[in-house]
Amino acid sequence: MSKTTVRPMIEVALLATIAYILDLVTQPLSLGPWISLSFKMVPIFLLSFRWGVRAGAMGGFIWGLLQVVTGEAAGGWLTPIQGFLEYFVAFSLIGLSGIVKPTLDKAIRDKKRVQTLTYITVGVVLGGFARYLIHYIAGVIFWGSYAPEGQSAYLYSLIVNSSSFIGETIASLIVFFILQEFLGRLLITEQ
Known about the structure:
By secondary structure, this protein is an all-alpha fold. The chain contains eight helices and two strands.
């Protein structure tokens, strides 16, 4: 195994574990009754921006796996299909943010700050949306019976999942925008 394949694997394991720990120990910052800022997806976005879609998907998968094997997913696991969708598929799809890696790397190398932040934003929105689309679908199918009386499962799932999507997207973007001066050192890898 070459050095170029070991380093991404180590980072996948490390950043997936950091995402899991952030999920356990941080409390979301509330922006009202429905939207909370949470930074737990940042390590998976970082992984995707550094190494691409495959590494990001592996990191998300491991994060979901850690939740399952440690029992953290127990309260959110209704059926095997629902659990698989929400803990393995949804978390893996965060890795889609890595689609922007080639253009992001070029923007960083060319020192084009606005383009860099634009690609970061596109990646974060894409990866976060892909994850929450799966949660929305699972919400309609599996969690719809928990909707308040008179509210459709579609609206209930949209409210619950879009508020999480918005909060986690905003929080992740805040982190990357704050770190914009260091993005070259954080995101460019010599493969």
